[in-house]
Amino acid sequence: MNYTFNWGVVLTGEYADWILQGLVLTLKVSGLSIVLAMGLGTFVAVLRMTHVKLLQWFALAYTEFFRNTPLLVQIYFWYFGSDPLFPESVKKWLYAGDFSFAAGVIALSVYTSAFIAEEIRSGIFSIPKTQLEASRAVGLSFLQAMRYVILPQAFRIIIPPLISQFLNLIKNSSLVMAIGVMEMTYMARQIESYAFRAFEAFTVVTGIYICISLVVSFLITQYNKHFLRTIKY
Amino acid sequence: MHWDVVIRNFDYFLLGAWPAGPMGGLLMSILLALGGIFGAFWLGLLFGLMRMSRNAWVRLPALVYIEIIRGTPLLLLIFWFYFLAPVLLGKTLPSFQSSLVAFIIFTGAYIAEIVRAGVQALPKGQMEAARGSGLTHVQAMRYVILPQALRNMIPSFVNQFVSLTKDTSLASLIGVNELMLTADQVNNRELTAPMEIFITVAVLYFVVCYVLTSISRRLERQLARYQARGR
């Protein structure tokens, strides 16, 4: 292997700035998508639990479809093919801003929300049925029972699997480089083509991703150790 | 709507230009996924067993491999091997082979964890009884533990195969001519029907993955009946 490493190139100066900008954008894309995916996922999970057949079917189709198609296809769909879907005013607003960013965030949120909906549903199922029946019996409506009794308990159980979904989301956010969002992986490619420093750039970026994932999995273990055992039925 | 574009190119989506020209499309995706899961099974089995070893020199490399790969986005891994191959081998590796290596190494780490979970889920008594009847540790693994554990892992393997099938779409970014790149090519050539093309491609992936997921669910129910349980 005749390759001389030159770490200075990527750790200082302009290229280091690129990686930092990339990291900031990666966190921005992931953060925004996490919030949207949580909202959307909870909504779909609750639809799945209602007694209206049509809503159940819709929620089932939603989760199955978005879980079983590749994220990259979905990103390309929102970026290239979503034009006829949006009303004129929304389109104007989206195209005025950074559309590749918006398409990336929409794709990531929708894709992740399907997984989150399944996690939440299994969380709700793990709560004994008597909880819902008891809260309905004391006079709460279905939505109130969900909001005040079931979901608070379900969320505590599903926090570890939810966090690993967030981790997946951060790793998946690397795919939005395909539509030109300049996040961390994009910047690594950029440095490779500007400076021919593929290894240094990829090593630094891989290191950052691994750090993020190690920190998060450490937090999950701590959570499991200290909080999960306090849950009683 | 321009569904005629999709209909005209449908055989291209499925097979690429094969048999008259190079293979591509869905067929290529499935080949990549099959090759990937085959290699990843052996790699994952090896590292999964290493991960459970009592010898730290054997366990630690497996632990490092699993943690690093599981913390890295697959896309970055694909780029890694794409750019590493010329330096290591002195010549460029075709993108098909280099993406296949990336898929095997990536999926191997996840399979290693499945293997570990599967072996640890068996009741302890199985190993103790096997050792008690005079088998060595390796023999007990080979003839008692793994045959049971691997059977219980089949649904997880199928799930891993499903996500690998979806992940093969990433190979398009280094130029492997599979379904995603085929779609991109048709989209660039026609320019009139992006929505129709990407919906078709999504549905093609969906059909493959959904059939596999359904099989995995059925297997899970059937296999659960035969599982040895601890008390």
What's a quick, concise take on this entry?
Chain A has 233 residues and is an all-alpha fold. Helices cover 80% and strands 0% of the residues of chain A.
Layout of SSEs?
The complex is a heterodimer of chains A (233) and B (231).
Chain A: H1 7-11, H2 13-49, H3 53-67, H4 71-81, H5 88-96, H6 99-126, H7 129-137, H8 142-172, H9 184-195, H10 198-226
Helix pairs in contact in A: 2-3, 2-6, 2-8, 2-9, 3-6, 4-6, 6-8, 7-8, 8-10, 9-10
Chain B: H1 3-8, H2 10-15, H3 25-51, H4 56-71, H5 74-89, H6 95-121, H7 124-132, H8 137-167, H9 179-190, H10 194-224
Helix pairs in contact in B: 3-4, 3-6, 3-8, 3-9, 4-6, 5-6, 6-8, 7-8, 8-10, 9-10
Q: Could you walk me through the main structural features you see in this protein, from its secondary elements to its overall organization?
A:
The complex is a heterodimer of chains A (233) and B (231). Chain A has helices at 7-11, 13-49, 53-67, 71-81, 88-96, 99-126, 129-137, 142-172, 184-195, 198-226. By secondary structure, chain A is mainly alpha-helical. Chain A has a single domain (7-230), classed as MetI-like (MetI-like fold, Orthogonal Bundle), CATH 1.10.3720.10. The N and C termini of chain A lie far apart (60 Å). The model of chain A has no long low-confidence stretch (mean pLDDT 89). Chain B has 231 residues and is mainly α. Chain B has a single domain, classed as MetI-like (MetI-like fold, Orthogonal Bundle), CATH 1.10.3720.10. In chain B, 78% of the residues lie in helices and 0% in strands. Chain B has helices spanning 3-8, 10-15, 25-51, 56-71, 74-89, 95-121, 124-132, 137-167, 179-190, 194-224. In chain B, helix 3 (25-51) packs antiparallel against helix 9, helix 5 (74-89) packs across helix 6 and helix 9 (179-190) packs antiparallel against helix 10 (194-224). The longest helix of chain B is centred in the middle third of the chain and has 31 residues, at 137-167. The termini of chain B are far apart. Chain A binds chain B through residues 1, 3, 64-65, 68-74, 76-77, 80-85, 171-172, 174-175, 177-178, 185, 188-189, 192, 198-199, 202, 205-206, 209-210, 212-214, and chain B through 67-68, 70-76, 79-80, 83-84, 87-88, 162, 166-170, 172-173, 180, 183-184, 187, 194-199, 201-203, 205-206, 209-210, 213.
